[in-house]
Amino acid sequence: QVQLVESGGGLVQAGGSLRLSCAASGRTFSSVAMGWFRQAPGKEREFVATISRGGNTKYYADSVKGRFTIARDNAKNTVYLQMNSLKLEDTAVYYCAASPLGSSSYIDRYDYWGQGTQVTVSS
Fold this sequence. Notes:
By secondary structure, this protein is mostly beta strands. It is built from no helices and eleven strands. The chain has strands spanning 2-7, 10-13, 18-26, 33-39, 46-51, 58-60, 68-73, 78-83, 92-99, 112-113, 117-122. Strands 2, 4, 5, 6, 9, 10 and 11 form a seven-stranded mixed beta sheet that branches. Strands 1-3-8-7 form a four-stranded antiparallel beta sheet, with no helix packed on it. The model has no long low-confidence stretch (mean pLDDT 96).
């Protein structure tokens, strides 16, 4: 079991930045790949970024590539999502998730989910 708690969401103007954090407890953090997903109102949950167990491999959705950065600190059991140059369309609830099977963009590969944190980008 892995328990995940996100933080760092909020209201930000377009062009601004936010850093999301996700603190993990339970299973050894370094044994799971981590991912960030988001869900906007009326839309399906979508992949944002993923990072491998050791942090060496990262993948991003095309919509955030070059603006968002995923990172992890295994000593602190925490994964981060640095979001820069935020756009209105980035508004969503952001979820972190853990995958014992390795990093992936597929939701089905993730067994553990946080409760989500709201990110709202205003004009």
